[in-house]
Specification:
The protein is mainly α. The chain is built from 21 helices and no strands.
């Protein structure tokens, strides 16, 4: 809640700042989800003075704040690479070696030697902090910032994400270009986009992928391969391609078929992996902490009763409390947290290009949500196999649940609803707060989860002897009804928004269906263009986005 309120305050600050920069000249409007790195005179690098911002002013730069909290090694290595202190690969390699050493020690030491293991971990943490403090001191010296090594050491001891975020903001404030995570490469829109993106083949787009994207793809493939060998039977190997099938199909129609020029495929890969890893990790941690709210509704003894197999009697005797907990769990813990973390996938990921069209915003948000949905589907599907099921029985159970979850891509629909709110704010100039952007998606997501939770607990309490297949079909039917209502709202919102963006001169026969509603022409007309005086009252302002049909008529009329 505190993080959400801080971000909301940051939204108001951005609105105030954006009012001063209303004159865009020839620049096309861009979404505030992505901001450009400021360019500052390099002669100011050694101007002296203190830090540009305090160590706990993390929300002054949301990107470094978000990533420093969940994956601080990437931000740390990028910052010191951009300042010429240590290569990003070397810094990241030191951290990986340290992490592997700690893991190896934890495997070798157990039992009576546990106390020694704790001592080793504490000493290794001090060594890591000292290494990072030494680089922070070198950063201070390069920038002419006064201070002592002891201050740098205790800064990293006190709050590692805060110290790393402060260093990243300092580097950004002096105009140092952002490096790519892990590799330290200089990534620009030209390096990751083919000359004619709309006509380039898959191979041409892949040749323009950054080294970071190739590494992410390789690591993801390695992890999936190891999980097949270590955790699952041979029959479940076919599940992995099927889990990724639905995201690939959605991205093909939404992005690749007609809109591949709106956002580079390199950014699509990174956003998908960010949703698959960082968003899932952050959501799991936050939901685990918030799940302690269950102690407000149930005592430890009552929770033990549910775990011991006395669930039917307990739910029947405390049905009102169970329903209230289902509501809190659905709308706050599940929907609220997951929609916020999916929102931060795009908001907290730096891209080498602004999102200059509504389609780019839609593609970016849906891509991150699909990554989140993929890892969540894998979790549910492999749990569905059951510990006792083996061979073909396990495979059938997994395929059934995968088919159910793939047919209801709630995360992707909620992301499209979020995109509608962002487009209203950034392209229609409507004053929309973060809460207003997230609320429709949270309502749909929470209602979907609440329907499933309430139906399950009702069946357990009052229909314990009913046919399990019949009960499951009833619950699934209710969930499908909620999902279809959400899809209908998404299509209506996108079609209405598309008509507003196209303006009154758009032809009535233009295509206005769903995701295609934002698939107009690539050219963005200048919103500040002054019309020529005409004797008759005609349309005198250019709409920001016009379809191919209607542009010539609009130009001729003006």
């Amino acid at each position: 809640f505190c993080v959400f309120m801080c971000v909301e305050c940051q939204e108001d600050m951005k609105d105030d700042i954006g009012a001063e920069d209303a004159e865009l000249g020839d620049e096309a409007p861009a979404s505030a989800l992505q901001e450009a790195v400021p360019v500052v005179d390099p002669r100011n690098l050694n101007a002296g003075g203190g830090w540009e911002s305090g160590m706990f002013e993390c929300l002054k730069d949301e990107e470094s704040c978000w990533w420093a909290f969940w994956c601080s090694c990437l931000v740390f290595s990028r910052t010191h690479d951009s300042m010429g202190i240590m290569k990003s690969g070397r810094s990241l390699g030191i951290f990986i070696i340290w992490l592997a050493a700690c893991g190896l020690i934890s495997l070798l030491i157990s039992g009576p030697a546990l106390r020694n293991f704790i001592y080793v971990i504490i000493l290794s943490l001090f060594a890591l902090v000292a290494h990072r403090a030494r680089l922070r001191a070198q950063l201070r010296q390069n920038l002419g910032i006064p201070g002592q090594f002891a201050e740098d050491f205790f800064a990293h001891c006190c709050c590692i994400p805060c110290a790393i975020s402060q260093e990243a903001r300092q580097s950004k404030s002096f105009g140092r270009p952002y490096k790519d995570f892990g590799t330290g490469d200089d990534v620009t829109i030209e390096t990751v986009t083919p000359p004619v993106a709309s006509q380039a083949s898959v191979c041409q787009h892949c040749l323009h992928l950054s080294r970071c994207s190739w590494i992410l793809f390789g690591v993801l493939t390695l992890i999936l391969g190891l999980s097949i060998i270590i955790f699952h039977m041979r029959e479940t190997i076919t599940i992995y391609p099927l889990v990724f099938a639905i995201p690939i199909i959605i991205l093909y129609f939404l992005f690749w078929r007609e809109n591949r020029e709106d956002i580079p495929i390199d950014s699509v890969v990174k956003l998908f992996v960010a949703g698959f890893t960082v968003a899932a990790l952050s959501a799991a941690v936050i939901e685990t902490v918030l799940s302690l709210l269950q102690l407000v509704f149930f005592s430890p003894e009552e929770m033990k009763q549910m775990a011991d197999g006395r669930k039917v009697d307990f739910i029947r005797g405390n049905f009102t409390r169970v329903v209230i907990w289902d509501f809190v769990n659905s709308f706050i813990i599940a929907a609220g947290v997951e929609e916020f973390t999916k929102h931060m996938i795009v908001r907290g990921c730096w891209l080498p290009h602004p999102l200059r069209s509504p389609r780019a915003v839609l593609i970016a948000l849906v891509t991150g949500a699909l990554g989140f949905q993929t890892i969540e589907n894998m979790e549910y599907v492999f749990k569905a196999g059951g510990a006792d099921a083996q061979g073909s029985e396990r495979l059938v159970n997994e395929l059934i649940l995968l088919a159910e979850r793939s047919a209801l891509p709630v995360h992707a629909v909620c992301a499209a609803i979020q995109a509608h709110g962002y487009i209203r704010r950034d392209f229609e100039n409507v004053n929309v707060s973060l809460l207003q952007i997230l609320l429709p998606a949270v309502i749909l997501h929470g209602t979907f989860d609440f329907t499933v939770f309430l139906g399950t607990h009702t069946a357990i309490a009052y229909y314990p002897n009913s046919d399990p297949f019949t009960v499951e079909m009833v619950i699934l039917s209710l969930a499908v009804a909620v999902f279809l209502i959400g899809v209908a709202y998404m299509f209506w919102a996108l079609r209405s928004q598309n008509r507003r963006l196209r303006g009154p001169d758009a032809g009535a026969g233009a295509n206005n269906d769903g995701f295609e509603a934002l698939a107009g022409d690539d050219d963005v007309l200048e919103s500040q263009m002054q019309p020529m005086p005409t004797p008759a009252p005609v349309q005198t302002t250019f709409p920001r986005f016009l379809p191919e049909r209607g542009r010539e008529e609009s130009m001729e009329s003006i």
